UniProtKB/TrEMBL annotation, chains A, B:
It is an enzyme of class 6 (ligase). Homodimer. Pathway: Purine metabolism; IMP biosynthesis via de novo pathway; 5-amino-1-(5-phospho-D-ribosyl)imidazole-4-carboxylate from 5-amino-1-(5-phospho-D-ribosyl)imidazole (N5-CAIR route): step 1/2. ATP binds at residues 106, 146, 151-157, 181-184, 189, 212, 265-266. Belongs to the PurK/PurT family. This is N5-carboxyaminoimidazole ribonucleotide synthase. GO terms for cellular component: cytosol. Residues 110-295 form the ATP-grasp domain. It catalyses: 5-amino-1-(5-phospho-beta-D-ribosyl)imidazole + hydrogencarbonate + ATP = 5-carboxyamino-1-(5-phospho-D-ribosyl)imidazole + ADP + phosphate + 2 H(+). GO terms for biological process: 'de novo' IMP biosynthetic process.
Amino acid sequence: MSELPAGSVIGIVGGGQLGRMLSVAASRLGFRCHIFEPSENPPAGQVAEYVTTAAYDDHDALRKFAESVDVITYEFENIPTEALDVLQALRPIRPGREALRVSQDRLIEKGFLQDLGLKTAPFADITDAASLEAALAEIGAPAILKTRRFGYDGKGQARIMTPDDAAGALADMAGAPAILEGFVNFTHEVSVIAARGLNGEVVCFDPGENVHEGGILRTTTVPANLTPMQRMDAGLLAGKILNALDYVGVMGVELFVTPQGLIVNEVAPRVHNSGHWTQNGCTTDQFEQHIRAVVGWPLGEGQRYADVVMENLIGDDLDKLPGYAKEPNTAIHLYGKADVKAGRKMGHVNRIVKD
Amino acid sequence: MSELPAGSVIGIVGGGQLGRMLSVAASRLGFRCHIFEPSENPPAGQVAEYVTTAAYDDHDALRKFAESVDVITYEFENIPTEALDVLQALRPIRPGREALRVSQDRLIEKGFLQDLGLKTAPFADITDAASLEAALAEIGAPAILKTRRFGYDGKGQARIMTPDDAAGALADMAGAPAILEGFVNFTHEVSVIAARGLNGEVVCFDPGENVHEGGILRTTTVPANLTPMQRMDAGLLAGKILNALDYVGVMGVELFVTPQGLIVNEVAPRVHNSGHWTQNGCTTDQFEQHIRAVVGWPLGEGQRYADVVMENLIGDDLDKLPGYAKEPNTAIHLYGKADVKAGRKMGHVNRIVKD
């Protein structure tokens, strides 16, 4: 059944909470995990059999890591290209390089989505003040200037409410290649967590509705407020993206819901914070689904058996834990991070609101 | 809330599948685990942060282990008394020594249960051929001769169908202290997985109905075939046992269902194979429940949200995996054991038969 026999070792690049939960899911299916992570004492290291602590430019460490595993996956998309080259020469990387190439660069991603016939926010490549001025004239303000690469959780972004903000926003980019995105007039944001197996089968989880605060995901609620038609559209467009990339694994697709249809905001080639609800709402959660894809198992079905609200525990939200631990129907998931910092994701809770 | 702060280390004695699943549950609540296990490469070691490989008579290793953790629990009850003495001098052991003393010895356990007013099979202390003959005269055949200590999964047991079998059965005990138990005329076996918190609160999971083959648990089905009165009785008697032992943690109580009421077969002072269904039928499963008790968290509620059939994967049952992986509503749990052996528990599946 599986391309990889039981007991095979899965290499996971990145040792944060996503790597941690992937590692647990892999162990449930009888696989062993090796984490590669530059920081000391990564959350995933507490639950994985092997950990390599080394920088992404340490090619010797990368080679040894690759040679010790049977397949490589990752918990975040911003892995340096040269590190990927080293790894790929030795072991298969799933999801593959094309997914990383596309998702690592907002400009390439937007072009890719448009080529597939999907709707995105209006956008323009920004290289200097002149191109920004021209783009603002076309797209209009308010708009948002973002670095093309390495942005997450609201980092590397600057809002332009009026053309007067343009110079300051461009300065915020610190010379990094950037993209201007027009504001989308959306009613709410949803995301689809979708998976594609090694054999090409596609399975989608029910879309969740996301609420952000300060650029960080606060809650995801299933079911999302969507018409049956929108729900179907969401699944179809996710499948289109997965197939176009010959993708293997789980992907998170963020969508804006507008009266004119669903607009693709962003694609993450990995398990996604907005899919954490699946841990307590589905028999196969997003982490196991990803592992099943990566090792060549059949995918689990995505059927949802409960209504769930996922709430992130950010920074000193941890103080709420004593109360949460007493709540019925509330599952707590902590990440084992030693230091509480403002804006840091420390864990999440899944509240089952209806079986 | 918790007696132990997040990030505290839980020492787990025993590195098999129960220790493995306890370790995963502990990590979900933000705790780290240290496994103590005599065998090399224990299943729990693949998912725990620390592993000590040493014998139970290695007192130095036991001391170092105890000093490195904040609290100690265990996955099996047959820990040598001297090892427990070493550990207890340094850190709290939960569940406590009294539960181990009682459950390590079938004769003491039966007496304890009778003192609580609970029903057990008729039994007698067997020290030699004469006491066996006398016991058979009183209890009658068929009966079953068991070693008082260190029996599990049908080991250390011999059936006596007629008095002629007595000598052979006694020889099978190889001189170990033994107990004769009369056969109970039961319709089926159920077990209650119950938990008691550090503050004395008691929570029971819904009883499961067990089917054994060759002395090894084959399936557990919830709901069990019980009247509402029997279900209530099961919970009440489990609570009685927990309170009498001032117990902290999860306990498995095996019960025979007879027309004359519930008869207690055996008590296991730990998470129990017949409670594995809780992983896919409850928000807080038996492993997390045990960890919550051990660290002093409030217990989760035991409410069941689905009908589940748990099936053990024993030996080459693993060959069925490709088919099982394709089944909807089937959760697979493998233990990461390298060698497949006849009678060895390799994993289990939880089939959700009704949400």
